[in-house]
Amino acid sequence: MTDLEDVDWTFDGYDTQEYTHGLHPYPARMVPQIVRALLSYYKHKGVIEAGDLVYDPFSGSGTTTVEGRLADLNTKANDINPLATLLTRAKSCPLDVDQMMDFRDKVMEDLAADLRRTRERYEDGGAFDDIREPEVRDGWFPQPHLLELCVIRNRISEVESNWDNGNEDDLGRFFRVALSKTTRRVSFQRNGEYKRYRLAEEDRETHDPNVYRIFANKVEENVDLMKEYSQRVNHDRSTEVYLADSRTAEDIKTNSADIVITSPPYGDHGTTVAYGQFSQDPAIVAWGRGYDEMREVDKEGLGGKNRKLEPLDTLEELSPALAATLETLREKEGRAEDAMEFFRDYYAVMEQVARVTKPGNPVAWVVANRTMSRVNIPTHLITKELCQHLGFEHQYMLAREIPNKTLPWSNAPENVSGVTGDLMAKENIVVMSAPDN
Ligand SMILES: C[S@@+](CC[C@H](N)C(=O)[O-])C[C@H]1O[C@@H](n2cnc3c(N)ncnc32)[C@H](O)[C@@H]1O
Q: What is the model's pLDDT at position 403?
């Protein structure tokens, strides 16, 4: 590779599910090949080397940390969504293949018969005082399927507690990923929707998924993916994942990251991608998280209802693109306040990234532009200008088409001045170099 500008960043037709990337879905996942190309470029240039640290403040399901491990780096990540941190760990930490197979055999042993007995007991009207039901909302799961999911959950916990090799957390987490995916398939959640939408009533009546089959198939698929990954990566490198807010990034040391690669949310979770809604049932059923905790996730995200920071009225003076956007929103009586709150939070993350990244080292923001009140928000320009104000230097603006992606801005929005219409279908990779601290 000679230069980042020569890369076709679309990566249309590439396998985005290889290695552990295919263990579990997550909304708005980053394309692994983007991270791979950036890491390989900066390694080739001698900017980073084996054993350096890559950090992702918006980890999601861990695309950056998985690619970081594949590139022989140490990895750190933050996310405010408990499901995201669990998936990041499960996907990034390699396993001892023999132990994984041994654990799998123990989880699967007589499981089909156990689930059959649960079903028969349910059909006979038996009581289930011995099975603690998770805090899911009424009307979102068929029965006895929910009880069957609980039996699998209990089985994983039992194998975990009888395991005495010291790595039961890693192994248990890995098998819960398959249960987490099974939970989504078994529930009344409509397929292909990231928000919570239930199947229509008539479809709910006939929804009778085979819990054992779905789980067993997913376990086999995940075991194969993990085998390939674990054989590829250096087990001596580390992955540290924090359930933490990147607006403060307290666990990440100053000047510690050699490179940052991240994809921020498009906007507040409520009106763009509802990561918390997507994660609720899997996190509650497979991982024992609480209903109240999961309900907070979308309010905790950037621009969310749980306001953490004082307003920063001068923010728009720091970015002409933000000022133009807010002016257009105000003229159209659009949601200028919401846009302001989102960028205020995003700016706090930029400040923290400036603090934790070694001076001069690369920071790549993979951003998508959204619309609000039919106004195109040029997030790529705003990212560049706000970063420049913090002393970052601009290196590259790499545009990419998004193959086959249905995004909320596809219905003919209007643009702010200076931003052309064809940017709508694109993501941009904004590459900056970090300032001196
Ligand atoms: C676009 S997704 C990242 C997807 C990820 N790159 C992947 O490939 O799976 C954005 C993530 O930012 C997280 N997030 C939102 N606000 C946050 C905050 N204040 N601190 C940390 N993470 C946050 C969301 O929970 C979501 O997982």
A: 63
Class of domain 4-86+236-267+302-433: alpha beta
Torsion, CA 328, CA 332, CA 338, CA 340, rounded to 10: 20
Instruction: Tell me the pTM.
Output: 0.94
Q: What angle do CA 42, 46, 48 make, to 5 degrees?
A: 60
Given a cut of 80, is residue 13 above it in pLDDT? yes
**For 388-423, what is each residue's pLDDT tens digit?**
999 999 999 999 877 654 444 433 334 443 343 333
- Decide if pLDDT at 282 tops 60: yes
Q: Which residues touch 14 (CB under 8 Å, ≥6 apart)?
A: 31, 33
Out of 38, 67, 80, mutate this one to test ligand 1's pocket (max ligand atoms within 8 Å of CB): namely 80
Cα–Cα distances in angstroms (integers) from residue 95 to residues 89, 169, 182, 209, in the given order = 11, 11, 21, 30
Asked whether the beta carbons of 97 and 223 are under 8 A apart, the reply is no
Q: What is the pLDDT of residues 244-254, one digit of tens each?
A: 999 999 999 99
Residue nearest to atom 15 of ligand 1 (CA): 301
Q: What sign does the dihedral 302-39-383-252 (CA atoms) show?
A: positive
Read off the tokens for 328.
């257009």
Q: Cα–Cα–Cα angle for 208, 211, 216, nearest 5°? A: 145
Residues framing ligand 1 (Cβ under 6 A): 26, 28-30, 57-58, 60-61, 63, 78-81, 84, 245-247, 263, 265, 275, 301-302
What whole-number distance in Å separates Cα of residue 301 and Cα of residue 305? 8
* CA 114 to centroid of ligand 1, rounded, Å: 38
CA 60 to ligand 1 center in whole angstroms: 5
Please report, for the chain, the start and end positions of each structural domain, with discontinuous segments joined by +.
4-86+236-267+302-433, 97-232
